[in-house]
Structures are given as C-alpha cells and as structure tokens.
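The following record pairs a protein chain with its ligand, pyridoxal-5'-phosphate.
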Amino acid sequence: MTDFTKTRAMFDIPEGMVYLNGNSLGPMPKASPAAMTEFLNNEWRTELIKGWNTKGWFMQTNTLGDRIGKLIGAEAGSVVVSDTLSIKVFQAVGAGLSMVPDRRVILSDTGNFPTDLYMVQGLVKLKEDGYELRTVEPETVIDAITDEIAVVTLTEVDYRTGRKHDMKAIIDKAHSVGAVVVWDLAHSAGAIPVDLSGTNVDFAVGCTYKFLNAGPGGPAFIYVAPRLIETVEPVLSGWYGHEAPFAFTTDYRPMPGKIDRMRIGTPSIASFALLEAALDVWDGVDLNDVRTRAVELMDLFISEVESRCAGVTLAGPRNMDERGSHVSFHFEDGYACMQALIERKVIGDFRAPDMMRFGITPLFVGEAEILKAVDTLEDILKTESYKDARFQVRSAVT
Ligand SMILES: *Cc1c(COP(=O)(O)O)cnc(C)c1O
C-alpha cells in the first residue's frame, strides 16, 4: 500500500499553498536541489568530459527511460528520454508513417493538444506527396479508423476536460485495419496506470515535467514496441541513434534492433539530474493506489463544488472510468476566477475558452487541500470578488 504521507513529505510545496496544478508543472521534490548541486560539483566540475563514461551520462537516455518504462508498463529497453514532447510527437508519427507507406491519412481528434496537431501539420507539409491530417470529434475517432488511415495519433487524456480515450479499443480497431497508433501520455504518465506492453501499443510519447515532477522543461520520452524496433525509421536521424556514433562515418545507419535508434543528439544532462531525483519519489508507489486515491479525491471535489458553487459546471465525463486525473469546470468568468483563486494560494490554471482546471495528484494532495480549495472557490463566487479589475489582466501563460 502506497504511503501518501511519506510521498507528501518528499515535496517542497510553499507553506499555505494548495497546489492543484501538478498536471501542468509538478512541484519540486525536496531532493532536487541536492541532486543538482551533486551533478554540478561532483560530476560536471570534477569529471568534465570523462563524465560521459564515468558518470554514465551517455546512456542516461536509456537508464532513465527504463525507470519511466516501469511506470507505464513498458518492457525494459523500449523507452528513451530526451528532447521535447513536440519533437517526440513528430518523430513517432514520422516513424509510424514509414511503416504504412501506401496510405496518406493521419487521424487525430479536435481535443488533441495543439502542438501535437501543429507538429503533424509540419510533417505533412515537409513530406508533400498527398499526406493529410484529418481531425474528428474525440467521440467519433473509433468510427473514423478505416483502411484509409496510416497513423492514428491521440492524447489518451484530454488536456482540457480530462476525458480519457479507451486505449485498448482504439488500438484493436486500428490494428484490425492495418493502421499504427501513436499515444501521447502527457496526462497519463504518473497519473493513471498505463500498460503499454499489455495493450499492444505501437508508439507512445510523453513528458516528465507534469505528473512526473522533473521540473520546467524536463526531458520528454518515446516508447517503441520491441516488435517494431528492428524496422522502424528514426526519421530524425541524429548521431546518437547511429549504430556507431564514435566511428564518425558520413552515412547514417540506425542502431540495429535497439531503442537507441530513437535517440537524436546530445541531451540536457543537467535536466537528467532533476529527473532522477523526481523518479526516486516513485520508488514504493503503486499507480493503482494513486488511481484509487485520485478517484476518491475527484469525487469529493466534484460533489463539493456542485453543491456549494453555483454557476460552475463540470467539463468532461462524470464516469471516472472515462476520466484521467484532472477536473475542469466551465465558468464564464473562468480566467478572472482562477486569478482570484491563485491570489488566495489555491493554484490551478485556465484553459480557453472558459475552463478552470485542477490537477488531482495524490502524491501531495489530500482531502484537506481539496476542501480548502472548494471553501475558497465558494467564497470567491459568493462575494463575486473575481469581478475586481486586477483579475481581468491576462498574462502570457494562463
Ligand atoms: C503538455 C503537452 C505538450 C507539451 O509539449 P512540449 O513540447 O513539452 O511543449 C504536448 N502535448 C500534450 C498532449 C501535452 O499535454
């Protein structure tokens, strides 16, 4: 049984703050400063160039990938860490297209995170040759998977509403018509149990700065099913994915039979120090326990808000089996209301056009935080304090 008192004590959350935004940027683990100092003083400063070998920097893409793999049901040797999620989406969809060369349609949904769609639009433009991105409503994706589709690319949990796709049903349908599926796990990894191997996933990508708490700009990851790795085209063919990077030959040859071929170039090793410290928090944590607790807390949050806060309405499904680990409410003045909450140290965020979004992350959020958040929201709505002019000013990041 996961001890959430213990995990709560591993985070350094400012006194008095109710942090309901771990779905967007996880809080800092208490171990992070020492991990960074250790990297600076006892790795970079002392080892310098030797560190690539003596401190294992060169293979941290894989050693850290394996640790993330354990949290998403991936086989050892099937995940590498580096770059950004946008780049990993491009790489995975590009690799998927090369596996189905006779088809031209990439299918996604209108609820997908914009960068995922933008990256595919860039890929389509680059490839020319009749490629097309088709987006349909999330609820109709499964019916839109036909033998015209080369790659289906979806985010499992909707970043705005929390709606969760039925991963297994979509994969089975796609495979039955010969299509390949790329899953974005941005709001799944560290949030809900994921079983990449058991669900027969082809490709998956995700980031580490949300539910995995590796800090702003923490590196992304990519998973390729072991059954595909021998033939998959890396697309972004950098020297880190080469069969022999230090042979320095002029022709690209992908690393045979290994996930290493999805590596691109020199990763940010400093960011790996933070990721490593963040992953230590997960030792002894069972994601099934996290899920059970998150559902209890989401149920509590939704029922308290609905009984005490007039004017706000739940976004996304009520059935918890169809929801990830965040809860959003529609409210006409949602932006201003969220600013008023933040001023009173209840931190969520706002997603256009009208959603106040709250991440429910049991590693550091419990009933006390949920109730304090609802008390504060209730008061802001009753007093209409959100109508104050200072809450209307929009920042660049919402
Ligand atoms: C957060 C998020 C991203 C962000 O991509 P970056 O390259 O890390 O900026 C992409 N896709 C989804 C689905 C996300 O939730």
